[in-house]
Write the structure tokens for this entry.
Amino acid sequence: MASRKNQAAAVANAVDESREDRLDDSSRAWIEELSSEGPDRDAALARLHAVLMRAARFEVRRRAGAVGHLRGGDLEDVALQSADDALVAVLAKLDRFRGQSRFTTWAYKFALLEAAVKIRRLAWQGREIPQEPEQWPRFASAAASPQEATERGELLEAISRAIDAELTPHQRQVFVALALNEVPIDVMAERLGTTRGALYKTLHDARRKLRLAVEEQGHAVGPASEGGGAG
């Protein structure tokens, strides 16, 4: 056990040394100041929050069309909440920064993600999660030949039957919402009181079941035929 701990410590030290070699002067200064105590850290936190606020405002404005019912002050509140949450996330993962980009570029992404998630949730606030497929027609191609259109129709019927026959109620709910109706996965996770990881696992299992069921009916299934993404 001791040898494993020593090995893990050696690996961690090697990673830290490798990161130090990659850090540019600005990123190194950020890490040192955020890892310190007192006025230097407080000043660095204020500067970092300003960086995250700019990122959050940018993303909120970019996605504002999805939440047309919100006014300027409301959008500013969303940006502020996003920056606050991003700051907490950056500090919690400070030791994971590997110097593969500038520190501010790395931190910026946290604010973009927080803002995107909050806007998606607000856009779905008060909306029911559709329980039935609403997107089957998008799989059809206007350029398909009559034979291809017939084959595609038969494939979609096979997938539809497999959804009803092979999936558990929970798998069906998750697959229909995420893969067919494009409900954001963070919205679905919030509604069901679960995690994105758990939903990805459910979606993966559902797709695997559907692929096997449809192939047993003699259809070749490509990735696109099983439904869209869940981002």
About this structure: Confidence is low (pLDDT under 50) at residues 7-15. The two ends are 40 Å apart (CA to CA). The chain has two domains: 2-123, 136-226. Residues 39-62 form the longest helix (24 residues).
